[in-house]
Amino acid sequence: MARRRIIAGNWKMNKTPSEAVALCEELKDLVKNDDVDVVYCVPAIDIVPVAEAVKGTNVHVGAENFYIEDKGAFTGEISAPMLKDAGVEYIIIGHSERRDIFGENDVLINQKVKKAFAAGLNPILCCGESLALRKADTYKEWIRRQITWDLDGVTADQVKKLVIAYEPIWAIGTGETATADQAEEVCGLIRSLIAELYDQATADEVRIQYGGSMNAGNAAELLSKPNIDGGLIGGASLKPDFGKIVNA
Ligand code: PGA
Fold first, then answer.
1. Domain total for the chain?
2. How many CA atoms lie within 13 A of 183 on its CB side?
3. Ligand 1 pocket, residue 10 CB under 6 Å
4. 72 CA from centroid of ligand 1 (Å)
5. Rounded to an integer, what distance in angstroms lies between the CA atom of residue 45 and that of residue 145?
6. What is the DSSP letter of 167?
7. Does 167 qualify as catalytic in the annotation?
8. How close is the Cα of 120 to the center of ligand 1, in Å?
9. CA 64 – CA 221 distance, rounded (Å)
10. Are 232 and 213 in contact (CB under 8 A)?
11. Is 129 exposed, middle or buried (0-12, 13-18, 19+ CB in 10 A)?
12. CATH number at residue 34
């Protein structure tokens, strides 16, 4: 089956609200493409102005983080219903920076996936191995374990709406991209795992992205692979190059 391509920018901790609006303006004409889902995952404080700036365009708004409770005494946190009400449709969960810098583990990530679905948000679930695991040739087992834990209790109907981003940590922000064959190998493996955990129909629908130094020069080759349905883009999502990736 034909899966719709999804190109998402992960702005990380970049852009003040006024800079965010300026970037939306700069990218507006460059990211036009009716055949692709385009998403800007932005810092929490940028969500409202970005949602306003992209109104009437083909761009969807995403968030980078949230907490699993709806409301209450959780100083500094933001909830899924708050994101939803502000116009957010996608939410990045399990990014390696959240796992490594902020100590998020697979138990919390699994709770977040379930909470996001319950709140009507579409998770972009990230997985990926370190350079040490890649060198030790244990990366396949690692990815398998991450996905299996993170999807515990998630239904097939939910997985059909899920986006999974394969992001080898050694390729994030390093300028070192996985080769198209390396990326395809793991994305194919993730799809087989979904078929095993659920069924073939679910595996055929789940969208799988590659992420890690994807740019205007390498996007077309990565996206030509049968199991790569899109990209999660950090650095290059903040530049006009993002439009070239959307239209690669
Ligand atoms: P990068 O980041 O494109 O800057 O490597 C990707 C990501 O962390 O999602």
1. 1
2. 33
3. yes
4. 32
5. 33
6. -
7. yes
8. 25
9. 27
10. no
11. buried
12. 3.20.20.70
